[in-house]
Amino acid sequence: MKRQIFTEDHDAFRETVRTFLAKEVTPHYEKWEKDGIVSRDAWRAAGRQGLLGLAVPEEYGGGGATDFRYSAVLAEEFTRAGTPGFAIGLHNDIIGPYLTSLATEEQKRRWLPGFCTGETITAIAMTEPGAGSDLQGIRTAAEDRGDHWVLNGSKTFISNGILADLVIVVARTTPEGGAHGLSLLVVERGMAGFERGRNLDKIGQKSQDTAELFFNDVRVPKENLLGELNGAFVHLMTNLAQERMAIAIAGIAAAEHLLEITTGYVKEREAFGRPLAKLQHIRFEIAEMATECAVTRAFLDRCIADHSDGTLDAVHASMAKWWATELQKRVADRCLQLHGGYGYMTAYPVARAFTDGRIQTIYGGTTEIMKEIIGRSLLG
After folding, report:
1. N or C: which end of the chain has fewer CB within 10 A?
2. What is the number of other CB atoms lying within 10 angstroms of the CB of residue 147?
3. What are the start-end ranges of the E strands in 165-312?
4. How far apart are CA 338 and CA 283, in angstroms?
C-alpha cells in the first residue's frame, strides 16, 4: 500500500539521509562495532549534513522543522541500514525536546549550537542499578548548597554514556517528595567528580557506547537546573510519547526490512530440490508476517501523522511502542528461523538484527509498562 503521510520534501530528505549513511556510516560501522563506540567524526558529519537538531529553531543552529515526519524518515533509514548503534534518534527526538522546551534563553544559547553541529553529544540519565521504570526508586540525589547543587549517585545503561558531553541527570532534590521530588540537572563533561564507568558489553548494538555513570560530590551550578525545580516527573511524562514513537518507528521499519530480506532469501535458497518459497509452510510464514507488518504500518503512520499535528496521546503512543516492538521481535525470530543455520551467522543481516533489536521491548518503557498504561486508561 502506498504510504500517504510523506510529501516530496520528505522524499528528498530521505535521499539525503541515504546518501549520508552510504558515505559516512555504513563503510565504518564494522569498525565501530569492534571498537564499541561510534566515531565523533561521524557525529560532526551528521551536523554538517543538517541531520542533528532537526526541530531546534534556526536561531540556535537547528533545522527549525517541527514536523515529526522528518524524524520518522531518519529513524526508518538508520534502521534499514542496520546502524542502530549511532544513536542519532536519542539525541534528536528524546533529548532535543528537553532542551528546546525547558531550557532558559541563556541555556539554549550555551548548549544548542553544539547540539546541532555534533560537537556536543548528549545523553539522559534516568536508570539506576536499583531503579528502572520506577522513578520513585531513584536514589541519585542533589543537595542545595546555595549557588550550586552537590550531586551524588550512579546511573547505568546510559546510551551515549562514554561520548556524552552533556548529560541530563534525573536526581532527587526533595527527599520526601517521591516521584514528585525529582529535578533535571545538566552535568557537563569535565565537571569534577563526574566519572564514567564501563562501556557495557551488550548482546547487540555493540557500537552504542552504553555506560555506567558516577557522580561523586559533583558541583552543579544552579544555572544548570533544567525546567522547574521538583518538576522532573511532569517533564519526563510530557516527553515520553515522542520517545516511544521513535522506538516504535524503528520497530516497524526493522520488521519490514527483515521481511524484505527474508523474502528474497527464500526465493533463492533451495531445499529438497526446489526453492524454499515453493513450500506451503514458508509461504504461510511470509504471508502472516507481511499482513502483520501492513496492519502495523497503517496504525504507525496514523500515529506519526497525529504526533506531527500535536494530537497523539500517551496511550496511543504506548500502544504503538509495545505492538511495533513486539512485532519486530517476532519477525526477527521467524526470519532467522527461515534462514536456517545461516541465520545464526553474524555475516547475515538477520543475525545482527535479531540481537540488535531485542532491547526494543525493554528501553523507553517495557512492554509490560506499556500495557499497564493502556489498561489503566481503560479501566481506571
Report:
1. C
2. 9
3. 166-172, 182-188, 194-199, 211-221, 225-226, 270-271, 274-275
4. 11
Residues 270 and 131: their CA atoms lie apart, in Å, by 49
Active site residues: 243
Q: How far apart are CA 185 and CA 170, in angstroms?
A: 7
Any idea which residue has 540537572 for its cell?
185
- Amino acid sitting at position 377: S
- In order, the DSSP letters of 99-145 are HHHH--HHHHHHHHHHHHHTSS-EEEE--BTTBSS-GGG---EEEE-
List the pLDDT tens digit at each of the 380 positions of the chain: 889 999 999 999 999 999 999 999 999 999 999 999 999 999 999 999 999 999 999 999 999 999 999 999 999 999 999 999 999 999 999 999 999 999 999 999 999 999 999 999 999 999 999 877 777 889 999 999 999 999 999 999 999 999 999 999 999 999 887 788 999 999 999 999 999 999 999 999 999 999 999 999 999 999 999 999 999 999 999 888 999 999 999 999 999 999 999 999 999 999 889 999 999 999 999 999 999 999 999 999 999 999 999 999 999 999 999 999 999 999 999 999 999 999 999 999 999 999 999 999 999 999 999 999 999 999 98
Q: With beta carbons less than 8 A apart as the criterion, state whether 125 and 88 touch.
A: no
Record the pTM: 0.95
Query: Which has the closest alpha carbon to 79: 325, 298, 257?
Result: 257
* Residue 363: exposure state from Cβ atoms within 10 A (0-12, 13-18, ≥19): middle
Contacts of 87 (CB under 8 A, 6+ apart): 38, 159, 160, 208
* Closest by CA position to 352, among listed 343, 339, 361: 343
Q: How far apart are CA 57 and CA 48, in angstroms?
A: 16
